[in-house]
Structures are given as structure tokens and as C-alpha cells.
Amino acid sequence: MVRPAFSHLLAVSLLVAQSPLRADGGDDGRQWLERMSKAAQSLNYTGTFVYQNQGKLEAMHIVHARDKDGERERLVSLTGPKREVLRDNQVVTCILGDRQSVHVNKSRPRTPFPFSLPKELMQLEKYYAFKVEGEDRVAGRECRVVAVKPRDNLRYGRRLCVHDDSHLLLRSEVTSPEGRVIEQVMFTSVAFPDHIDESELLPDLGGANYTWQREPEQQPEPGDQSADSHWKVFEVPEGFMLTDHSWHQLSANEPGVEHWVYSDGLAIVSVYIEASSGHREDYNGVSHRGALNVYGTMVDDYYVTVVGEVPRRTVEMIGSSVRIK
Amino acid sequence: MNDEIREQISALADDELSDVERPLLLGRLQRDHELRAFLGRCQLIGEVMRGTGEAASLGIADRVQEALAADAPLSVPLNGTTGRVAWVKPAAGLAVAASVALVAVLSVNALRNDGPEPAPALASAEPAGSPEPVVARAGDSPGEQWDRLDPRIDKRLSGYLVNHNEYAASRGVQGVMPYVRIVGYDTSE
Questions:
Q1: Is the Cβ pair B160, A272 closer than 8 Å?
Q2: Does any domain span residue A1?
Q3: Which of A177, A195, A211 is the last residue of a domain?
Q4: Considering only Cβ atoms within 10 Å of each terminal Cβ, which end of chain A, N or C, has fewer?
Q5: How many CB pairs (< 8 A) connect A and B?
Q6: Number of domains into which chain A is organized
Q7: Contacts of B48 in chain A (CB under 8 A)
Q8: pTM (predicted TM-score)
Q9: Domain span holding position A191
Q10: DSSP secondary-structure letter at A227?
Q11: Residue A10 is part of a domain; what is its CATH number?
């Protein structure tokens, strides 16, 4: 019987923060990542950034506000299709203007870093090497470069640049196991206003006449114990642990989806299992969006889908091992 | 590479290229790795001379900011390696900004990786016994996007993606990246 391993979730988050401590012989790296994590949640900031992925580039604008009521965030596309993501402490709303659809999901609490379990810290260092690579400059602001390199070819690396003053993440690169940049987000301008006006957090896209997919407030019974499942994930890369297992109803009109979440402390992989609901279509193969890879397959009359910011070989390995017990 | 091209690239690196020449050169740069590498070297040299070095991100931020002030719509081929053309839509001058930034980013990658634009690590093996794929065959070139899928599959994957991203975004090291993928993917691919 496996409950959602929140202790593991917290622990592995810490691993990311703690590991540079060992790599650098000091606590500099750990402190930078801890500060980065806190800054992302606690700062008021607005900015324009570019997202680059396989030769494509899009520009976006972000507004993030933090007050006594919590966090609010708005991310809007400036190039290409009109799209927005709005998030607060309750819900995440994705408005896809080009598809005339709106997805509304529950928001999850952000995981902090200030916890320590030495055993898991050592575990993460088995799979990633951490290094502070010095100073850089992004959007005209000085930042500290922290590199996280995978030790095998089943996970991706990161190269982060954290603002010296605010500790905001100014540039984030996802790198292949060989070290190539797969995608990156980089601010071109950023500001830290004392106050964010309400109007900056409201969507431009109204959503009228759009198709809405709303995650129902009443979800299936928790049943968050893997022993209750008829399914088993037989193979995950070494170091990945089950951090959550639950059932969702992603839309009021859709049947429930069984959801398994695995993490090695840095990467997160989701396994979704859903009944085929009558009209079964072929559902086998892989796809990707930036560094996010997807593997889909049918097992009996169920759709099995693996989604994760890991290499394609990893989602294939996990997905092809999912079977009925 | 002739002297005229060198002069144009040098002018681009210094942001002194004319509005007429710039879109033509940007298009050529998308297709030519050698030219991109040369542009990167020009920018590095310029920044070294100005004392800013690579730390200035090869001037991307400033160039994008300057281009944001302009309002000249521009369409550029974004993927020269496959022959497909994606169009940057003119949005309040951002087209030029994005084009300049793209070239600069590609130049950074060319310098860092000593090769053409990066590709993700891909497994070559297809799972044994897979029926005819609908999403994309394992082993295909990395160009298939969810946008081309059967609408029913696409709808299902979109729901999973939004749900997964909320899990991923709740982790401190991910930043805004999970949602950026929702907002930023290109449906013209």
C-alpha cells in the first residue's frame, strides 16, 4: 500500500537544492537554488521573455503578483496564436484562442525547499552532477549560473541563471544527456514593481463561445493507494520514486483517469490510464512538445499515456512496462 | 562567404543593417549554420571589445528590446533544416524582435555546441509489437507535434498536459517552463 509520498516529494525537492553544496564544497549552490525557489513564489514581477525550442522562437509576457491572499500569475503569448494561462491558489486556467477552448484545473501548492534527508540527498547525486559555473548577464541583470548534468541518458539536465539581487530565474535551459540545449526560456526585460494592478492579471481572451473543459470540484474517491489499483508500472529508471497516485476527472464529461506520478527529485513523469469509453481509436506512438515527451499505447481497452520532461527513451521504457497486475 | 555578406552580418551584429537588408539576411541566416556561427563570432568580438563578453547573452536582450520599439511586420522561415516554413506573425513589432532574438539564440547554440541547431535526444527503438502508430512512430524525425493528431487524441493529450504541467510547475526548479510549453508551441508546424 503506497500513499502519496509527500515526504519523498519534499525530500527530493531538497535534493536539488542541497546537491550543489557537495559539488562546490560550499553551500553557495544550495543557497542559490533555495533563494530561486522562494523568489518565484514571493516576488512581484513583470517581464517579457523568449521561448526557444528547435529553431522556433516565441515571445511571451508574464505578470506575477504576491499579496496576503497568495499568488496570482498571468502568462500571455505575444507571438503566434493567442493563448493565456492564469493561475491563482485555487485554479489554473488555460485559454487557447486558436482552438477556442479553455481548460480549468485545480492549482497545486508549490513545494518549498527547506527540508533535509541526507539519504535522499546522496541518492540524487547518483543521478545528477551539480556545479555553479559563475556569473552571466540576462536582460541586463547579473545572474549566477547553476548547471545540473545527468549522469545517464535517461534524464535531462538544466542550466539555470538566477538573478543576483532578486533571485528570480532569468534563464532556464533544458539540456539533453549529451549537453545540447533542447529548449530555453530567457527574459529580455523584467521589472519588480511594488504593486501589480488588478487589470494586469485579467485575461484579454474572454472565452465566450469557447469549449470549456473544467476539472470537476467533486473528484472521484481518493483511493490514493497503489495497492487498490489493477495496474502496475513495472519499470522506471533508477532513482525515480512514486510521489503521488490518485484518480482525476479532468472534465465533467470524461470518465476518471488513474494518475501515477514518479520523480527522481528533478524530473517528473506522469502515467495516465483511462478506459477507452466506447469508440476506441489506435493509440500508439510518441510525440513531444519541447523537452516534454509523450508516449501513448493501448493495453486491453485502456489508454496508457506517459508524459514527462525526460528523454523519449524514458517515456517509452516506462509506458511499455505498464500492465494489468 | 563573400565580403558583402560579411559586411552585412557585421552590420547586423552592430544593429546597423537597413530595414531592407535585414529580413533577407535573417532568412539566409536561418538556413546557413556557417553564417550563424560567423554572426556569433562578430557579436562575441563586439562584446569583448565593449567589455561585456558572453555574459551579455550575445546582446539578445538589448536587441529584442530595441526591436520591440519598431513596428515592422516580418515573416521569416524558422526551420531551414527541414524545408518547412513557419511564419512569425506581426504582433506590435515583436516579429522583428523575435527574428533578431532567434538568430542570436541560434548563434549562441552554434558556439556552445559546435554544431547546427540542437535536436533532442531520441531513442531509436520502437516498442516491440506496436500497431500502426497514430501519434508518431518512435524513431521518426523530431517534427511531429500533437497539433496534427486526431482531434479526439489531441483533446485527451491536452487534458493530460495541463494536468501534468500543474504537477511539474509546483516544483521549485521548473519555473514557468511547464506553462510556457502550452502558450508557446507552434500550431503551424
A1: yes
A2: no
A3: A211
A4: N
A5: 313
A6: 2
A7: none
A8: 0.64
A9: 6-211
A10: G
A11: 2.50.20.10
